[in-house]
Amino acid sequence: MNEPYLRSGIFLAPFHNHDENPTLSMERDLELIEHLDRLNYHEAWIGEHHSGGFEIIACPEMFIAAAAQRTKHIRLGTGVVSLPYHNPFMLADRMVQLDHMTRGRAMFGVGPGALVHDALKIGIDPGDQRVMMEESFDIVVRLMKGEVVNQKTDWFNITDAKLQLRPYTRPTMELAVAAARSPSGGVLAGRYGVGMLSIGGTAPAQMERHTANWNLYEETARANGHTPNRRDWRVVGFFHVAETREQARKNVEFGVKQFAQYFRDVATFPIIPGDVGDPIEWLIETGTACIGTPDDAVAYVDRLMKGSGGFGVLCELAQNWADWEATKRHYELMARFVHPKFQQSRELLVESYNYATERHVEFGGQAAAAIQKAIDRHAERAGKKEAAE
């Protein structure tokens, strides 16, 4: 990508420790979206989880409807809806309603479901989830296109189904598929020519996997008659910045251990290995996270962009490593000093400043001459007036 415009976003699971009031935690998540809207973040993706006690939003569509009423600009996506848990006709119908209610700011992100215990609680074999995702997504895409669908599988029976509303966004709302460790998400996204959400971190080894998935996406997209565009590729990374590196490290002591413990105890893969002595130093040294200053974040993002070949949206994982005030300050610093570097929003300012600086003596002389000319003209008129009197 030549001089890409990197859009900004977050990926909100969310993660909340057990020692907090869950009602207030949800309210704070909504306040975070409002904060990001004011800071010119482009989008936020909200997850769906039903067990585990840490990721507490069960219905991202409901959250998005509430967040849309509090915001003006930010786009809001399901990050993601677990397709095997829902009838595809009912789900597509709900999402079209959300598309209308948000006036086109809603995005539809999908996946197979990340927590095995969510699937088991409703009788789904985890080994079937990716096949079920593919079966469901095909129905969703066809319905969004306005087709009448008849399709029977061993878990749904769609009969003469057609949406009663066209999507507010034409021809259809934006769609994206999550891709992490397996190639299934990238293949599915490429097959239909929709966006890809690379989740799971941005350490060097993970970025290699994400880049491989994107290459597979491009190959699959072209084979199915679609033109791949890196603007449709979103990458989720771990960040916390402060005014100094020392302050950033101190800030994340608030919640990084609880975050690490959740992934060891409940989630299906540990982000931070259990034998790590200092998780903060490990996150930094391995490149798993950027914990430092805005300049450190610029260098980190630059590495991701160059190593991957470029992508369209950088989504920060909303991890609650720091307390609320430090978290808000982090997003402000990212918006003020990191995003502009990758959005070409400051270059003309610098160019204009340099142009004026290089000609300062010349322009100063012209300004002084203009002032003196006005003074002389005034004196001349005053002299003529006196002579006339």
What are the SSEs and their pairings?
Elements (H helix, E strand, L loop, with lengths): L6 E6 L9 H17 L4 E4 L13 H11 L4 E8 L5 H14 L4 E6 L4 H6 L7 H16 L4 E4 L4 E5 L13 E5 L4 H9 L2 E4 L5 H20 L9 E9 L3 H8 L3 H10 L13 H7 L3 E4 L1 H15 L4 E5 L6 H15 L8 H12 L1 H29 L1
Parallel strand pairs: 1-2, 1-11, 2-3, 3-4, 4-7, 7-8, 8-9, 9-10, 9-11
Antiparallel strand pairs: 5-6
Description:
With 389 residues, this protein is an alpha/beta fold. It has 2 domains: 7-345, TIM Barrel (Alpha-Beta Barrel), CATH 3.20.20.30; 351-388. The protein is 49% helix and 15% strand. It contains 14 helices and 11 strands. An 8-stranded parallel barrel has the order 1-2-3-4-7-8-9-11, surrounded by 9 helices. Helix 1 packs parallel to helix 12 (324-338) and helix 2 (60-70) packs parallel to helix 3.
What descriptive keywords fit this protein?
single chain; 389 residues; alpha/beta; TIM Barrel; 2 domains; eight-stranded parallel beta barrel; two-stranded antiparallel sheet; 14 helices; 15% strand; globular
**Helix percent band:** 40-55%
The total count of helices amounts to 14
CATH topology of the largest domain: TIM Barrel
**What's the count of strands?**
11
CATH domain class of the largest domain: Alpha Beta
pLDDT averaged residue by residue: 95
Listing every helix as H and every strand as E from the N terminus to the C terminus, the arrangement reads EHEHEHEHHEEEHEHEHHHEHEHHH
Shape: globular
Strand content: 15-25%
CATH architecture of the largest domain: Alpha-Beta Barrel
N→C terminal distance: 75 Å
Strand order of the largest sheet: 1-2-3-4-7-8-9-11
The CATH superfamily of the largest domain turns out to be Luciferase-like domain
For the record, the count of structural domains works out to 2
Output the radius of gyration: 26 Å
Largest sheet: 8 strands, parallel, barrel
Low-confidence stretches: none
**What structural class should be given to the helix and strand makeup?**
alpha/beta
